Amino acid sequence: MDQPIGLQRDFWDAWNASNREHKLSEISLDQREVTLRWIAGLKRTDLDIIEVGCGAGWLCPSLKPFGRVTATDLSENVLARVSQRVPDVRFIAGDFITLGFAPASFDLAISLEVLSHVADHDAFIAKLSGILRPGGALILATQNRPVLERHNTVNEQQPGQLRRWFDRNELKTLLDPYFEIQQLDTITPMASKGPMRLLAGRKVKRLIRAVAGKTVERTLARHGFGWTLITLAHRR
């Protein structure tokens, strides 16, 4: 279904305003935890960093200790508000594919739950590769298609919302021409239907945590049952 860029912008302006400007989900909190741990592993504080699809800018304050941060998103109205709350970050509103970033101008690119919402996935990954310096790092998270399709009830796709989820092998195939994958994990087991909800339903998880901490969740994630696929890769 054709989704003009203006319609996409309107959808994400409204979505970010109602979902990410006021509260972070468990999914986002887990993505932030893994992202910051992987960045710390790079052992640098002078990075040129770009976050592509920054939404309400919730990750940006945590990125500033690692270097100079640029953040971009379609959500023009949301970014106007974020820029007032989060100083010392360069916010750029617009379609990432058409924005004129210079080649090889960043050391690290971060993109969390954006891939499934772009029209041309190969062009998106190619551009991420192109704006990174040789050997530059990519941290990318996207929805884990089998878990969403088999174990969760998901809201209907809305006007202005592009949606094409990936499984682990599809993501590897997409990244392989441009990036060498260092790590590819699933995180945040979650289920709202089927047998897995007995271990990963929201209420059940809280009860299990009270008894065994996050041991069960980590085991499910290791076996591929996380909502999120998240990868650390380096530009070839």
Description:
With 236 residues, this protein is an alpha/beta fold. It has a single domain, classed as Rossmann fold (3-Layer(aba) Sandwich), CATH 3.40.50. 40% of the residues lie in helices and 25% in strands. It is built from 10 helices and 7 strands. Strands 3-2-1-4-5-7-6 form a 7-stranded mixed beta sheet, with helices on both faces. The longest helix has 16 residues, at 26-41. The relative contact order is 0.15. The model has no long low-confidence stretch (mean pLDDT 96).
Radius of gyration: 17 Å
| Category from helices, strands and their pairing | alpha/beta
Mean pLDDT: 96
Widest sheet, order of strands: 3-2-1-4-5-7-6
Number of domains: 1
Helical coverage, percent range: 25-40%
Strand content: 15-25%
Number of helices, where a helix is a run of at least 4 consecutive DSSP H or I residues: 10
- The quaternary state of the protein chains shown equals single chain
Number-wise, the strands total: 7
Which stretches of 5+ consecutive residues score pLDDT under 50?
none
N-to-C SSE series? HHEHEHEEHEHHEHHHE
Largest sheet: 7 strands, mixed
CATH topology: Rossmann fold
Overall geometry: globular
Top CATH class: Alpha Beta
CATH-defined superfamily: Vaccinia Virus protein VP39
First-to-last CA distance = 33 Å
CATH arch. level architecture: 3-Layer(aba) Sandwich
